[in-house]
């Protein structure tokens, strides 16, 4: 099976995005635990719980998204139409996630690299030759 360069690029983008999401999961989990401790010291247990909850939500989303990206990379490599559809959804959700981080954190927690991978993936997914290869 011959793969176009666009499919190879899309596969590589998926693997990098997946690894980046898993790294973000670890970072958010560590920061969340530290932030919860500081929040508890400064504002009591309630504030600590709120900080931990916010970071936990984003960390879990990063974990799920990272695992999905790695699985989707395999599907894209083997040119599976289900991988095209789910990859499109995952990267739209990723852009929405980064937008919400921008809003909630005042811009300090936004991962522009992650957003860049999503934009690049969406660009390749919507190319005519890629859509024809995936038969979508």
Task: Write structural notes for this entry.
This protein has helices at residues 5-43, 45-77, 81-105, 112-125, 128-134. 87% of the residues lie in helices and 0% in strands. The longest helix has 39 residues, at 5-43. By secondary structure, the chain is mainly α. The model has no long low-confidence stretch (mean pLDDT 83). Helix 1 packs antiparallel against helix 2 and helix 2 packs antiparallel against helix 3 (81-105).
Offer a quick outline of the entry.
The protein is mainly α and 136 residues long.
Which key features would you list for this structure?
mainly alpha, 136 residues, single chain, elongated, 5 helices
- C-alpha geometry: elongated
Distance between the termini: 18 Å
- Number-wise, the strands total 0
| Low-confidence runs of at least 5 consecutive residues | none
Major β-sheet annotation = none
The number of helical elements comes to 5
Instruction: Write down the secondary-structure element order.
Output: HHHHH
Radius of gyration: 17 Å
Percent range for helical residues?
Answer: over 70%
Strand content: under 5%
Topology:
Blueprint lengths: L4 H39 L1 H33 L3 H25 L6 H14 L2 H7 L2
Helix pairs in contact: 1-2, 1-4, 2-3, 3-4
């Amino acid at each position: 099976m011959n793969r176009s360069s666009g499919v190879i690029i899309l596969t590589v983008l998926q693997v990098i995005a997946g690894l980046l999401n898993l790294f973000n999961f670890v970072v958010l989990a560590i920061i969340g635990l530290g932030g919860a401790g500081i929040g508890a010291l400064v504002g009591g247990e309630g504030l600590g719980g709120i900080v931990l909850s916010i970071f936990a939500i984003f960390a879990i989303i990063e974990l799920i998204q990272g695992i999905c990206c790695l699985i989707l990379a395999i599907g894209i490599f083997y040119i599976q139409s289900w991988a095209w559809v789910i990859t499109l959804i995952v990267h739209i959700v990723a852009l929405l996630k980064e937008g919400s981080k921008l809003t909630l954190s005042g811009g300090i927690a936004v991962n522009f690299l992650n957003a860049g991978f999503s934009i690049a993936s969406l660009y390749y997914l919507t190319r005519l030759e890629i859509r024809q290869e995936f038969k979508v």
